[in-house]
Amino acid sequence: MIWVYFLRNKLEAFYCFKKFKSMTELQTGHKVQCIRSDRGGEFLSTDFLEFCEANGIQRQLTMAYTPQQNGVVERKNRTIIEMAKSMLHEKGMPYFLWTEAVHTAVYLLNRCPTKALNNITPFEAYSGRKPGIAHLKVFGSLCYVHVPTELRHKLEPKSTKGVFVGYATCEKGYRVFDPVSNKLLLSRDVTFDEENAWHWTDKNGSVMTTYSIENQEDLDLKSDSSNENSTSTPQTLDMQESTSPTPGDISSEERRTQAYDHTPLKWRRLDDVLAQCNLCIMEPEKYADAAQDESWLKAMEDELQMIEKNETWELVDRPTEKPVIGVKWVYKTKLNLDGSVQKNKARLVAKGYAQKPGLDYNETYAPVPDWTPLEHLLL
């Protein structure tokens, strides 16, 4: 069984894992015992490690630059991405709908028989029920969403033309994108024309490829069970087309602002997302790892030169009656706004946490004067 979560940033990975763990353990009655992942920073955070230790979850990490050690996941990711790309290209759809294509690909793969499960579907192996397939439609096909009488006048059309982009997760309905109003509709009353597709051009005849969501949280996925037999009302999610001013109208300040792509991660071009998926930035955890890379050796050399230049240290004889505090290297990869690597940065810091109160230091305080006497002194 496959689950997919779309993250705004890597910090959300820990939250999604906890949500996934609670859901699967409640549904299956089995505890998560082991998790295998790469060495991404989101999987090596202190919160993630402490959570796994507290819940008795064994960690299995791949070695650096060896994705084949987690081959099942890596190959499944490739299958999903290739399937999503094929669906988009088949109907000539713009890449900003890549998340919808990935979501639909996962939905279909969970309902396809596989030899690994003796030719049953992952859905059946997980839930014990055979999945229904009568509702499956061709991704990207033309469709018409019924507009309830309460939402239209007598002379207005009874339906809205759109593009089928997937299946609702928390409701029994379809996800339909309206390219004219830039809205995402959720409805169960949809008529499909699977032989035809939308012509992805605007009034000027140019290809429509740039859209952004104003508020992704506007989509309410709560269903009303009391209206199960009534006509459903399509839910909408507003989307605005981004426009670009002419080069003569852009100031230097605006150019610096526009250098960063503010489009939400969910709606960026699929090419950009694939490029970032293939980029794995490894930050060494100890000196032995960093010493094997020329770029990190140069970063450490630059740090030592800067320490000497700023006269940060003063060489003294080693005291015999007091313990000596050690030092450690901290490594960090600095990134540009577009996600590319700017430089490797190394810091040499003291192990202050090794000091013991009463032995290495006594009570400390920072005196803060009151403003009134300080004002008199200044006068």
UniProtKB/TrEMBL annotation:
Pfam (any one): SH3_retrovirus
Annotated spans, Disordered: 219-257
Molecular function terms, GO-annotated: DNA-directed DNA polymerase activity; endonuclease activity; hydrolase activity; metal ion binding; nucleic acid binding; RNA-directed DNA polymerase activity
Keyword match 4Fe-4S: no
Feature: compositional bias, Polar residues: 226-246
Ranges for domain Integrase catalytic: 1-130
GO BP annotations, alphabetical order: DNA integration; DNA recombination
Highest taxon in the source lineage: Eukaryota
UniProt keyword Nuclease, yes or no: yes
UniProt xrefs under InterPro entries: Integrase_cat-core (IPR001584), Retrotran_Ty1/copia-like (IPR039537), RNaseH-like_sf (IPR012337), RNaseH_sf (IPR036397), RVT_2 (IPR013103), SH3_retrovirus (IPR057670)
Name of the protein this chain belongs to: Integrase catalytic domain-containing protein
